[in-house]
Design a protein that fits this description.
With 491 residues, the chain is of the alpha/beta class. Helices cover 39% and strands 22% of the residues. The chain is built from 16 helices and 16 strands. Strands 1-2-3-4-5-6-7-8 form an 8-stranded parallel β-barrel, surrounded by 7 helices. A 3-stranded antiparallel beta sheet has the order 11-12-13. Strands 14-15-16 form a 3-stranded antiparallel beta sheet. The longest helix is centred in the C-terminal third of the chain and has 20 residues.
């Protein structure tokens, strides 16, 4: 592979084309800033011709003084290029159809007409002072000779870079290795889609065959099955190929989770690098090995991508992982007590329960005969929500024996109730909700829901759960249990 790979991130353009995703200008600027901070070379900020709101976002990003080059998608039209120049971008990603299928069925033109449009657009963009990356759309189904002709003509007219697009994800590494060497008239990028699960493999094949840049998206976002995932490509290059990418990898997890929140596209729990379970262990043998020597069951340390290791407890857990979890929670016990705690943990696991920190603490308290007076006792919860009504919640609790009533509004009834609870203990310090998950335990409209929350206070994180048929009360139950545990430690 090339000594230095350029990373062209298209999360804000191709990634935003994920069905249901629509980012506000401020969100786009936030993501672009994070991308630049971790070392991305080019940020494709959107499509300037799409809408005025899109142009507003592109202008914000272009004027933010980012270290990354700012690009925008354009068609072979002067109006698109004018929009791009007016937005102040550095580069245009000029995309033209390359396959006969796209040329005839979509464009209703001839090969000659497409070449003329593309080459004229290149010249016009260069006149406007823009860097030009000329992309062949659906290049994987194009006639190789025609694609080479299109690219060569573009370079002769001033195109700075070229891009091979596997638009519908049908290439294989073997085919990529054959076609790329014949297209190196200028620095070549590879743009892969993951329809058949080959985006990452095809991107590597292209880089090994002479391409010097890769188009990527955070979390593999994109149309249909998505694009090549930034985090997976970077870490595979660093770990498996020993290539220094220049990317600040410790920022990858934060970037992934922020993009997930803003787009509303959840991370698959088993996703490589950034999925919830990527550095989580439950199996007794695995957990024991990791506790003794992390590399036994981890290819990289979680800290390298900005994460921490987690040991989950369940029916597969052994005494070593339970002891480690108890120690982290501040408990000390003898072998007999540990055996009893392990037995109870396995019993809960056999019931299909996810065992949280609060669950383990309750088990340990029972086995060790520890009596704790809860800091918070819930008295009542009232929630108002509906069409044309701002969700509002009121809670009454006793905090260290004193009654407190607080109200709050939120994005929804659960958000309002959680915020009201947080306000009720303001005098004792801030507790933040870091993660929230709901699982349906049974089917039907009367389904029992299992709510798991992750709370933090002064750098200490703790998970707790609540199970009710009412999602609001399940959430409140989980919050109160977790808040009590964090506050009990302080007391």
């Amino acid at each position: 592979m090339a000594a230095k790979c350029r990373f062209f991130d298209t999360t804000l353009r191709d990634g935003e084309q994920t069905p249901g995703v629509s980012l506000k200008p401020a969100q786009k600027l936030s993501i672009a800033t994070m991308l630049a901070e971790i070392g991305i070379d080019t940020v494709e900020a959107g499509s300037a011709a799409a809408s005025e709101g899109e142009r507003e976002a592109i202008r914000l990003i272009a004027g933010a003084g980012l270290s990354a080059e700012v690009a925008t998608f354009v068609r072979a039209l002067q109006l698109d290029i004018d929009y791009a120049a007016e937005c102040g971008v550095d580069c245009v990603h000029l995309v033209v159809p390359a396959s006969d299928l796209h040329i005839r069925a979509k464009m209703r033109k001839t090969r000659e007409e497409v070449c003329t449009m593309a080459w004229d657009a290149v010249e016009y963009a260069k006149e406007r002072g823009l860097v030009v990356e000329l992309s062949g759309e659906d290049a994987s189904r194009a006639d190789p000779a025609f694609l080479a002709h299109l690219f060569r003509g573009g370079v002769e007219r001033g195109a700075d870079r070229l891009c091979f697009c596997d638009t519908v994800g049908i290439m294989t590494p073997e085919k990529i290795a054959e076609v790329v060497p014949g297209l190196l008239f200028a620095p070549l990028s590879i743009h892969c889609h993951d329809d058949l699960g080959f985006a990452l493999a095809n991107t590597f094949a292209a880089l090994k065959a002479g391409a010097s840049a890769a188009h990527v998206t955070v979390n593999g976002l994109g149309e249909r099955a998505g694009n090549t995932p930034l985090e997976e490509l970077v870490m595979a290059m660093e770990v498996l190929y020993g290539t220094k990418t220049g990317i600040r990898t410790e920022g990858l997890y934060h970037l992934a989770t922020e993009v997930s929140k803003m787009t509303g596209v959840p991370l698959p729990v088993n996703k490589a690098i950034v999925g919830e379970m990527a550095f989580t262990h439950e199996s007794g043998i695995h957990a024991h090995g990791v506790l003794r020597e992390a590399s036994t069951y981890e290819p990289i340390g979680p800290e390298r991508v900005g994460r921490t290791r987690r040991i989950l407890l369940g029916k597969h857990s052994g005494s070593a992982s339970v002891r480690a979890a108890l120690k982290e929670l501040g408990y000390a016990c003898d072998e007999v007590q540990l055996a009893e705690i392990v037995a109870r943990v396995k019993s809960l696991g056999d019931e299909g329960r996810r065992i949280t920190d609060a669950d383990l603490m309750a088990i340990a308290d029972s086995v060790l005969n520890l009596v704790r007076e809860p800091v918070i006792r819930l008295r009542q919860v009232t929630v108002v929500s509906g069409s044309n009504v701002v969700p509002t919640a009121s809670v009454t609790v006793t905090v260290n024996g004193e009654e407190v009533t607080c109200a709050a509004t939120g994005n929804g009834p659960v958000d309002a109730a959680v915020e009201a609870l947080r306000r009720s203990i303001t005098g004792l310090g801030e507790i933040r909700l870091e993660d929230y998950r709901v699982d349906a335990i049974s089917g039907g409209t009367d389904a029992l829901v299992d709510v798991t929350v992750c709370l933090s206070r002064d750098g200490r994180m703790l998970t707790s759960r609540g199970a009710r048929t009412d999602i609001i009360m399940g959430s409140v139950e989980a919050m109160v249990a977790g808040m009590n545990r964090l506050l009990e430690e302080q007391r």
